[in-house]
C-alpha cells in the first residue's frame, strides 16, 4: 500500500525532485550511483514508505570490483548477477562481465511482480536493456506501468539521451558528493 507522506528526496534535502515521477541517476563508474540509491531506499523506509525494485551493489575482492550482486528491495534476497570476465569472452556481450542467466530471469520476475510502491528503484538499466539484448528489460515495463509514486533508475552517461527519449519528462541527477562510503 502506498502512503501519502514525504518522498525520499524530501528527506535528503532534494525537494526540487519531489514532483518528478521518473528520476534518472547517472554518473561515471565509481561515483556512487548505487550508494545514492541505497540512501534513497533507507530514507524512504525511514519515512515508512513502501519500496520495491532492485539494487546492484558491487562486490570487491583483492582491491578491485570482481562481481555484481542483485538485491530485491522488497524481500532483501540477494543473488550474484555477474562476475568479471574478459570483454572478449563468450557470453559477456562485450561488457567484461559474465551475467548469470538465472539471476537475470529472477531479477526480471522481481520487477514484473513488483507491487504498488512509493518508490521503485532499478539499479541499473544499461546497454543490454537499451539495445534490446535482454538484461533486466522488465524494468522498462515496471517503470511505465506507473504502479509507484516515483521511480529511480540508474543509467550510464552514454545512455542518458536514449533514456530521455523514452521518458521525456524525467529528471537527470548525479549522486551528491559526500555520501558515506559502503564497506566492501
Describe this structure in words.
The protein is of the alpha/beta class and 184 residues long. The protein has a single domain, classed as P-loop containing nucleotide triphosphate hydrolases (Rossmann fold). Helix content is 27%, strand content 26%. It is built from 6 helices and 9 strands; from the N terminus they run αβαβββββαβααβαβ. The chain has helices at residues 8-11, 33-46, 101-113, 127-130, 138-144, 160-166, and strands at residues 22-25, 51-55, 58-61, 64-72, 78-84, 97-99, 117-122, 148-154, 171-173. Strands 1, 2, 3, 4, 5, 6, 7, 8 and 9 form a 9-stranded mixed beta sheet that branches. Strand 3 and strand 4 form a beta hairpin. Helix 3 packs parallel to helix 5 (138-144). It is globular, with a radius of gyration of 16 Å.
Relevant terms:
184 residues; 9 strands; Rossmann fold; 6 helices; single chain; alpha/beta; nine-stranded mixed sheet; 26% strand
Amino acid at each position: 500500500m502506498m502512503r501519502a507522506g514525504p518522498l525520499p528526496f524530501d528527506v535528503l534535502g532534494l525537494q526540487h525532485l519531489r514532483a518528478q515521477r521518473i528520476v534518472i541517476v547517472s554518473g561515471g563508474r565509481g561515483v556512487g550511483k548505487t550508494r545514492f540509491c541505497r540512501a534513497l531506499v533507507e530514507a524512504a523506509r525511514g519515512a515508512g514508505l513502501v519500496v520495491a525494485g532492485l539494487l546492484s551493489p558491487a562486490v570487491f575482492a583483492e582491491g578491485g570490483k570482481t562481481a555484481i550482486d542483485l538485491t530485491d528491495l522488497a524481500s532483501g534476497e540477494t543473488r550474484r548477477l555477474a562476475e568479471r570476465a574478459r570483454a572478449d569472452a563468450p557470453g559477456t556481450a562485450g561488457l567484461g562481465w559474465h551475467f548469470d542467466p538465472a539471476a537475470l530471469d529472477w531479477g526480471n520476475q522481481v520487477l514484473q511482480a513488483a507491487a504498488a510502491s512509493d518508490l521503485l528503484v532499478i539499479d541499473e538499466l544499461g546497454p543490454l536493456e537499451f539495445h534490446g539484448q535482454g538484461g533486466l528489460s522488465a524494468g522498462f515495463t515496471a517503470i511505465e506501468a506507473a504502479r509507484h509514486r516515483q521511480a529511480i533508475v540508474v543509467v550510464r552517461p552514454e545512455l542518458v539521451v536514449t533514456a530521455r527519449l523514452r521518458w521525456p519528462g524525467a529528471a537527470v541527477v548525479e549522486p551528491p558528493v559526500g555520501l558515506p562510503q559502503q564497506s566492501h
